[in-house]
User: Fold this.
Amino acid sequence: MIRKFPSSRFTSLLSAAKPLRSFACSSSPAREPPLCALFSEAKSSPTSNTLSITPKTPLFLRTPSHAAPLSEVWKWHDWAKDLASSVEHPSTDPDDSLDSAALLRELKWLIEDSIIDDHPVIHRRETPNEGEQSVKLRASLEELYDLWRQRIEKRRPFQYVVGCEHWRDLVLCVEEGVLIPRPETELIVDMVEELVTGDEWFKKGIWADLGTGSGAIAIGVAKVLASPGKVIATDLSPVAIAVAGNNVRRYGLEGMIEVREGSWFEPLKDVEGKLVGLVSNPPYIPSGDIEGLQAEVGRHEPKLALDGGIDGTDCLLHLCHGASRMLKRGGFFVFETNGDKQSKMMVDYMSNDLKDTFSDLKMISDFAGIHRFVTGFRL
Assistant:
């Protein structure tokens, strides 16, 4: 079950964008190394730190090795509901306050992930003796008490509490040190899907996902491309590399996705000028705004994945220049931004400072109608 509220999908996200790649199409395949050869050349070797990192196992994948009397599980459930209901209080910042209804929904999901046969044991209390039966758990009751306290008292993100996030049709492992993928970022995969559906050239080439985090975009793009397309996912964080690699293996996409550790384009030197697509959700929050973020974000998510410098555009500008080197003629890019102001700045910058480098530069709106993405094609 995918845990999200239904959202309308935007259709024809790229309907007005026409790639200019007539020169790229005229290249003789015989003059280029095979795609698999390009993909395997000069692979970045994981550091010893990366190899020593073992991603945490999310609750729903744990073996049900614990047990407790049903009466004790009821007691924990009642306590957890009471704690969730107690958070309703006036706040000067409604965007940074907890919501009891949302917490109760999360509690239901926590039960689904941690308790075997959760619905009958939690919601049915018919006979006095029923409370003595044993319930299988994927976490001890002591840990469940602690996890729920962390969620409410420390504002630990629910995704870190259960160790996963439901994103598109995926259930991705996440943990501290890895950015939690957002619903609006799903639109990047939608745009790629629309593009490759109309043009096989994009489907057969090499793509890169920079700052991959959990590997969400890379996995989504790989599922859209299918074989023989390839995706290289890069990240500077050893924790992200370990988590992304684990998610790639869980979905059996090792043959399509290669995870490389390094900063932005550094691990991609062997494919410079050979990419047909480049996608990224980079850090784009201005440094001065980090402290004022929602507690779940500012206190717990990695600053490395949030802080975009003084005005939030440091990484975005770096991506612009890198895209000009890394993409083939006619290659496509999509970058996520902080919103209207950054998107407009990006389009202006690429139109003027990088004149005659990109075509069909566009700002694409997210579910809320905010210009969240910038797309374009390499001339």
